[in-house]
Structure formats: C-alpha cells, structure tokens
Amino acid sequence: MASTADFKMGLCLEFNNDLFTIIDFQHVKPGKGPAFVRTKLKSLNTGKIIDHTFNAGVKVTTARVETRPHQYLFEEESGYVFMNNETFEQITIPEKLVDNADFMKEGQNVEIMTHAETETPLTCMLPAFVTLDITYTETGLKGDTATNTLKPATLETGANIMVPLFINEGDSVKIDTRTRAYVERVKK
Questions:
Q1: Is the pTM of this model over 0.85?
Q2: Which of 68, 109, 119, 186 can bridge 172 by disulfide, Cβ–Cβ 3.0-4.6 Å?
Q3: Are residues 89 and 114 in the same domain?
C-alpha cells in the first residue's frame, strides 16, 4: 500500500482490476477545498492512457514489478523472442507489449517489466537511444540548408523516420526511441 504522497513516475498500481503505471502526476492544493493529485495512468495490459484524480492521502495498492535485462533474438508468428541475460531462458512476448518494435535489431539488449507475483511480462522497453543505418533516402539538394528541412528515410530495421537533408544512404544515425526522432549522425 502507498499513499498519494508516494507517487512517482513509473510507479505501478493495481487500480480498477488492472495494472497501471504512472506516466504523469501533479499535486494540486486549490485555495478552496481539499488537496488532490491529478494523474495520467497507462494500462500495462491494453496500453490505454487514462486521466484520474485521487484525493490527497488516499491509499492505493501498488503492484510489485521487476525489470529484467533481456536480449532480442528473433520474431516469430506469436510475437518476439527474447533471452534472459541472467538465466538464459527464452520467452515470447506479443507485439502489442513492445513499443516501437520496428527499432529492434537482433542481438539488441532491452528491459522487460515483469509482474513479480505472476511472472507475466507486462511491457518491453527499448533503450532510450539506438543507432541504426539508413538503407534508403532521397538525396538532398546541394545548398538547400537554409531551413531545418527534413526528408523521409528508411532504416535497416524497416522503420521510417524523418532526417535532415544532409543524411545519405549508408549513414548511421542515433534515434530517440521514445519520440521516434532523429538525434544525430554517428561516425562509423
């Protein structure tokens, strides 16, 4: 059990017969009336984001979750296959539990959040930044750099992102997996 004073980003709650993680919260003390906490909760089962307001001091049930390092091996019909880096056990996770799966490369390390009591995987988190090669992009026009113009590019994993005009095929780029945005060109 935890109270609203214990809220922090990433805290996992059992709420409305579902598991939710806190993605945003704000303590509010209005001039008139009691204090309350506004939250944005993401369902770990469906991925749906809801807004909920808790009265200050309310007790909520926390879920015990563990984050374990895994390595992405390959994709099959039933989902993605990962190997636990500590026990070498393989597990298959459905595609809906993996955000931005099109940035995963074979052999890449990820973190899998698991419900500790039931040992069921809840979500798969990629590293914040990944480095991938550009396999296709149009060539930029020489001298067309006066503005921050972007062009579409296809990565080695098949994902499509927007990159600056100076990026060419074969270049390696660093991508933020949370926002799907280009960060910088990486020297090989």
A1: no
A2: 186
A3: yes
